[in-house]
């Protein structure tokens, strides 16, 4: 890993401090702030549609542009989503709470205040259990993350800084702002200080964000596309000497936008802090930018607890006061907890922990469930979705569900394989055709002429030919080394140009040689 | 007055009340085009002296009028005030019509949308004559803080017409418009009404939509009618009122029956009228106090019982108001940053966004606006919030309790609307505190959200200038103040031989030469 940008001459030095060694002396404390964009039809305080990727400044109105005289109206669906998120995070739901204005000037904020919640969040005092692989590699460990609060707010516009080397505001020639994003509902979920994770802190951070993402998906309240910014994580990290009770000075690494980066950024900051503390220097309380490419953070702006946002209750909105009946009605709509559901499905499907983890990492739990429901065996569904298809998705940089392959396709493919029409390599070719949009598996197999030769005559001829040409191997097999048959099968398949069922070829070879399989 | 076509029954259409105009239009006695043109003619003649209108939309007003006349000719059923022209305070966004809020910051701002109340005026098919002058962002009690020069009082061009809605009060008092829109944050409808001999009502907070009204202090601002009679005000109130889904603070309840109240019985037998001990006395002009006492006698004569009530926390109203208002205003006015609309001043070199914001705000805001932004920013600062904003909110609660207690003992409360008659332009410009004290009687109603109105109670002996009496009612009981106002108005009219406004002297066509503020030629051109 080399640091190439961001004035990080010193950055490389941090990497010389071994992470594990640091954790023998320091206790890391984390605080994670995750912003989730709600996928409501309209924005938080106006009727503008929200849609990612629309032409800049086409999803705006007097309200979200902050025109003189415009007033906000709370999106009731967003409030319901916030309550459901709060409930799913085991939070208490406020009986009465208000919005507040967070005042600061920035060009991407149309009113120069953000309508947010301050000391009266809609949800507070919750927790979430996350699972990380056990240290001995067997099974999982559960780590409880305490949730401080989940509150509602609006997103800002999106600034793009044009010119300059870094794409950041400093050094840019000019900046443009897209207000389509301004006013999109956000839920900010803030943890209490996370202590006791020790060397597992980076993993815990990643597991937490991952679990939150799963939860938001299960709740169907957000797209949670980290790469598109619909879920964003700010990671606060500080170190204190082991045994100390007062937290060290923290830094806040902003907008860490992938699960892997969450883990890397936390790990990087722990190491960086340790190097600074070891040198007897002080940590500067500041925001930091995460650089995905180089894997380092660089200094952002100083941030102190004295940052004065002049919060006061938003006078243009009335308090939000969900009735207990409404809260209970919403509680009844909560989905099964994703972790509980995963354990149930793992049992149903008979997957090992490792297999299940691959499935989860491939984001394939739902699609496998649907594929099994469509008639495929769990093993086949797993094999395709977290294997071949996951690799293809990864290569294309899309989600596994965006390849154009449906659960029904995979169920159909599985039937073709188990029915003996296709072997594995043929099946992979069929998948390639489906991905290429050539049709259903049957259509692709037909069009490409993929079908195992069912006629034993042709296969027997190939077997005979291979036996004749491999006297040495035949001798070994007859001598009891039955596993040597593999070499012959390979040649038979080659003779058949792959259009044969390898299992049948094995049977024929052994029966021709008069050997028991 | 040149355009009446037929009758001598109406030598001057502009002198009619809105009710008379509406009835005559319905009866076909003259057309809305004639009526509108009569007002436009008077505006053309007198606005150079008064500076009541910042913008006159003759074309738009006449088009609406012609449209109403056509519809009426076709036998269409029309709203009561259809064809009756109106002036709109420049604080309300009007689609396609420059809306400045009296500020240089918005000199060229043309809203792409109508405020809800403007939509209602359009639905009521009222020709909009233009936009009226005001103190910048409604901060002031004299209209001297307008970036476009002061408005003059039709009673005496050397005097202020009140503020912030001095443009609307002067337009109505000077017969340039029969009706106008005002906004009242601490008295900006009622105090101008008092000093111009007109009627102004601030409805219950939430009674009229604020959507599209350029915000001063969100929790205090309220839109209401300016008129020459109580019945006229009531008609406009009903047009404006009602729930608006675009304004979360608007009340989801029917508009109080103000028209019925304003045109109902004149008998106040059994009504308890409370006189607030804490409003009046020291600082109140003798003639103001005398007219007030006289009105109390008239109320007694109408059958009302006068009781004294105490609202001990009103003493703190002014202090609380001048924390809450600047706090909210400092935040509401943050949006004027030159990034999306409004004045943009770019310093030399390659300035940062922050530098552009700072230069633009420095150039675009007047001193009074800056003063209040600084006050509010300070009051909201961490470490000061509890002592200032927090404490002010507590006072607000106590004032609301005072009102609640007072309304146990009285059905309505009355006081002089303003401590003095119209003062001279320039007199208080250098003394903000004495300017602020003008609103001492009107501010408590805004803090508590209760409705209040001012009606003329006569002229002060010593200066011959109009005096107003304020009537306050409990929240959502706006009709009570209309009932009392209409009864008192009738009694006063009878006793004084006509409406106070009918005694308005001829308005000179030219303002006195040595005006302390005059509009620059450039401005005149830009806004013509």
From TrEMBL, chain A:
Q: Catalyses which reaction? A: L-glutamyl-tRNA(Gln) + L-glutamine + ATP + H2O = L-glutaminyl-tRNA(Gln) + L-glutamate + ADP + phosphate + H(+); L-aspartyl-tRNA(Asn) + L-glutamine + ATP + H2O = L-asparaginyl-tRNA(Asn) + L-glutamate + ADP + phosphate + 2 H(+)
Its Enzyme Commission number(s) read 6.3.5.-
Task: Note the subunit structure.
Answer: Heterotrimer of A, B and C subunits.
Name recorded for this polypeptide = Aspartyl/glutamyl-tRNA(Asn/Gln) amidotransferase subunit B
Q: Main role?
A: Allows the formation of correctly charged Asn-tRNA(Asn) or Gln-tRNA(Gln) through the transamidation of misacylated Asp-tRNA(Asn) or Glu-tRNA(Gln) in organisms which lack either or both of asparaginyl-tRNA or glutaminyl-tRNA synthetases. The reaction takes place in the presence of glutamine and ATP through an activated phospho-Asp-tRNA(Asn) or phospho-Glu-tRNA(Gln).
UniProt xrefs under InterPro entries: Asn/Gln-tRNA_amidoTrfase_suB/E, Asn/Gln-tRNA_Trfase_suB/E_cat, Asn/Gln_amidotransferase, Asn/Gln_tRNA_amidoTrase-B-like, GatB, GatB_Yqey_C_2, Gln-tRNA_amidoTrfase_suB_CS, Gln_synth/guanido_kin_cat_dom
The family classification in the record reads: Belongs to the GatB/GatE family. GatB subfamily.
Where in this chain does the record put each Asn/Gln amidotransferase domain?
Answer: 366-513
> Matching PROSITE patterns, A to Z?
GATB
Instruction: Report the domain of life of the source organism.
Output: Bacteria
Record's PANTHER family?
A: GLUTAMYL-TRNA GLN AMIDOTRANSFERASE SUBUNIT B MITOCHONDRIAL AND PROKARYOTIC PET112-RELATED (PTHR11659), GLUTAMYL-TRNA(GLN) AMIDOTRANSFERASE SUBUNIT B, MITOCHONDRIAL (PTHR11659:SF0)
Q: Which UniProt keywords apply?
A: ATP-binding, Ligase, Nucleotide-binding, Protein biosynthesis
Its source organism is: Ornithinimicrobium pekingense
Automatic annotation (TrEMBL), chain B:
Q: Give its E.C. classification number.
A: 6.3.5.7
The active-site annotation reads 89 (charge relay system), 164 (charge relay system), 188 (acyl-ester intermediate)
Renumbered to this chain, the Basic and acidic residues biased-composition regions fall at: 518-528
Which positions fall inside the Amidase domain? 34-480
User: Pfam families this protein is in?
Assistant: Amidase (PF01425)
Q: Where is this region: Disordered?
A: 143-162, 506-528
**Keywords for this entry?**
ATP-binding, Ligase, Nucleotide-binding, Protein biosynthesis
Catalysed reactions, semicolon-separated:
L-glutamyl-tRNA(Gln) + L-glutamine + ATP + H2O = L-glutaminyl-tRNA(Gln) + L-glutamate + ADP + phosphate + H(+)
What PANTHER family does the annotation carry? GLUTAMYL-TRNA(GLN) AMIDOTRANSFERASE SUBUNIT A, TRANSAMIDASE
Homology family: Belongs to the amidase family. GatA subfamily.
Q: How does it assemble?
A: Heterotrimer of A, B and C subunits.
Q: Which HAMAP family match?
A: GatA
Its annotated function is as follows: Allows the formation of correctly charged Gln-tRNA(Gln) through the transamidation of misacylated Glu-tRNA(Gln) in organisms which lack glutaminyl-tRNA synthetase. The reaction takes place in the presence of glutamine and ATP through an activated gamma-phospho-Glu-tRNA(Gln).
- The name this protein goes by in its record: Glutamyl-tRNA(Gln) amidotransferase subunit A
> What organism is this sequence from?
Ornithinimicrobium pekingense
């Amino acid at each position: 890993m080399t640091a190439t940008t961001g004035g990080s001459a010193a950055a490389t030095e941090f990497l010389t401090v071994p992470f594990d060694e640091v954790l023998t002396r320091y206790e890391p404390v984390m605080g994670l702030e995750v912003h989730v964009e709600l996928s409501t039809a309209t924005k938080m305080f106006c009727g503008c549609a929200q849609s990612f990727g629309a032409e800049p400044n086409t999803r705006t109105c007097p309200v979200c542009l902050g025109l003189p005289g415009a007033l906000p109206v709370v999106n009731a669906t967003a409030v319901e989503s916030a309550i459901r998120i709060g409930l799913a995070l085991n939070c208490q739901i406020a009986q009465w709470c208000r919005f507040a204005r967070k005042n600061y000037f920035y060009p991407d904020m149309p009113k120069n205040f953000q309508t947010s919640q301050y000391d009266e969040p809609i949800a507070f005092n919750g927790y979430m259990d996350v699972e990380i692989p056990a240290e001995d590699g067997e099974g999982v460990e559960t780590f409880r993350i305490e949730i401080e609060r989940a509150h509602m707010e609006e997103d800002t516009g999106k600034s793009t800084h044009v010119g300059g080397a870094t794409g950041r505001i400093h050094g840019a020639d000019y900046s443009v702002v897209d207000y389509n994003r301004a006013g999109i509902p956000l839920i900010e979920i803030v943890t209490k200080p996370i202590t006791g994770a020790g060397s597992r802190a980076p993993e815990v951070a990643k597991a937490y964000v991952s679990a939150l993402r799963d939860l938001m998906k299960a709740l169907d309240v957000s797209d949670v596309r980290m790469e598109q910014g619909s879920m964003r994580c700010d990671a606060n990290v500080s170190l204190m000497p082991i045994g100390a009770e007062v937290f060290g000075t923290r830094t806040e690494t902003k907008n860490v936008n992938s699960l892997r980066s969450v883990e890397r950024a936390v790990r990087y900051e722990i190491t960086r802090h340790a190097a600074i503390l070891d040198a007897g220097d002080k940590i500067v309380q500041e925001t930091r930018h995460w650089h995905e490419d180089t894997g380092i953070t660089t200094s952002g702006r100083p941030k102190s607890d004295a940052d004065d946002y002049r919060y006061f209750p938003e006078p243009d909105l009335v308090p939000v006061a969900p009735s207990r009946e409404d809260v209970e009605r919403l509680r009844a709509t909560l989905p099964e907890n994703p972790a509980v559901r995963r354990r149930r499905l793992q049992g149903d499907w008979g997957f090992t922990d490792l297999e299940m983890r691959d499935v989860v990492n491939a984001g394939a739990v739902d699609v496998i469930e649907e594929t099994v429901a469509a008639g495929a065996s769990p093993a086949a569904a797993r094999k395709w979705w977290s294997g071949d298809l996951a690799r293809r998705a990864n290569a294309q940089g899309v989600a596994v569900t965006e390849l154009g392959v449906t659960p029904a396709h995979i169920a159909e493919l599985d039937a073709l394989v188990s029915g003996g029409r296709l072997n594995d390599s043929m099946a992979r070719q069929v998948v390639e055709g489906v991905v290429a949009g050539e049709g259903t598996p049957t259509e692709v197999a037909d069009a490409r002429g993929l079908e195992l030769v069912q006629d034993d005559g042709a296969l027997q001829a190939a077997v005979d030919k291979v036996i004749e040409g491999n006297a040495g191997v035949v001798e070994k097999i007859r001598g009891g080394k039955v596993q040597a048959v593999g070499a012959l099968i390979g040649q038979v398949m080659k003779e058949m140009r792959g259009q044969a069922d390898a299992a049948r070829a094995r049977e024929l070879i052994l029966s021709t040689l008069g050997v028991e399989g | 007055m040149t355009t009446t076509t037929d009758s001598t029954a109406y030598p001057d259409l502009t002198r009619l009340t809105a009710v008379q105009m509406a009835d005559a239009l319905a009866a076909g006695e003259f057309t809305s085009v004639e009526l509108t043109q009569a007002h436009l003619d008077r505006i053309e003649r007198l606005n150079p002296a008064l500076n009541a209108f910042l913008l006159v939309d003759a074309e738009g007003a006449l088009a609406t009028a012609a449209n109403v006349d056509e519809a009426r000719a076709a036998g269409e059923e029309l709203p009561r005030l259809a064809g009756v022209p109106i002036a709109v305070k420049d604080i309300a966004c009007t689609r396609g019509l420059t809306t400045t809020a009296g500020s240089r910051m918005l000199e060229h701002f043309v809203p792409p949308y109508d405020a809800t109340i403007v939509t209602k005026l359009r639905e009521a098919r009222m020709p909009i004559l233009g936009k009226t002058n005001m103190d910048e962002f409604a901060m002031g009690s004299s209209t001297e803080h307008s970036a476009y020069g002061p408005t003059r009082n039709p009673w005496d061009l050397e005097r202020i017409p009140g503020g912030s809605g001095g443009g609307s009060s002067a337009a109505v008092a000077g017969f340039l418009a029969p009706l106008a829109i005002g906004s009242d944050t601490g008295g900006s409808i009622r105090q101008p009404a008092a000093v111009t001999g007109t009627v102004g009502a601030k409805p219950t907070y939430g009674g009229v939509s604020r959507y599209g009204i350029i915000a001063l202090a969100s929790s205090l601002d309220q839109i209401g009618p300016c008129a020459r009679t109580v019945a006229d005000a009531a008609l406009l109130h009903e047009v404006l009122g009602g729930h608006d889904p675009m304004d979360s603070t608007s009340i989801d309840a029917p508009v109080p029956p103000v028209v019925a109240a304003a045109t109902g019985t004149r008998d106040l037998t059994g009504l308890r009228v409370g006189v607030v001990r804490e409003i009046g006395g020291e600082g109140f002009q003798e003639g103001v106090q005398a007219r007030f006492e006289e009105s109390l006698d008239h109320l007694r004569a109408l059958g009302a019982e006068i009781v004294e009530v105490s609202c001990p926390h009103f003493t703190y109203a002014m202090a609380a108001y001048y924390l809450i208002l600047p706090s909210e205003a400092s935040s509401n006015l943050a949006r004027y940053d030159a990034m999306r609309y409004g004045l943009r001043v770019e310093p030399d070199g390659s300035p940062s966004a922050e530098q552009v914001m700072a230069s633009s705000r420095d150039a675009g805001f007047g001193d009074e606006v800056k003063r209040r932004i600084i006050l509010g920013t300070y009051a909201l600062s961490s470490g000061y919030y509890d002592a200032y904003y927090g404490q002010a909110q507590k006072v607000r609660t106590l004032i609301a309790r005072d009102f609640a207690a007072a309304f146990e003992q009285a059905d309505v409360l009355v006081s002089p609307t303003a401590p003095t008659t119209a003062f001279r332009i320039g007199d208080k410009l250098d003394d903000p505190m004495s300017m602020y004290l003008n609103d001492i009687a009107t501010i408590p109603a805004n803090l508590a959200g209760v409705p209040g109105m001012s009606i003329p109670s006569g002229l002060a002996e010593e200066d011959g200038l109009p005096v107003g009496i304020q009537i306050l009612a409990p929240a959502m009981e706006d009709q009570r103040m209309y009932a009392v106002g209409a009864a008192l108005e009738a009694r006063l009219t009878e006793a004084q031989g006509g409406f106070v406004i009918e005694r308005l002297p001829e308005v000179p066509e030219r303002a006195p030469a040595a005006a302390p503020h005059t509009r620059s030629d450039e401005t005149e051109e830009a806004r013509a």
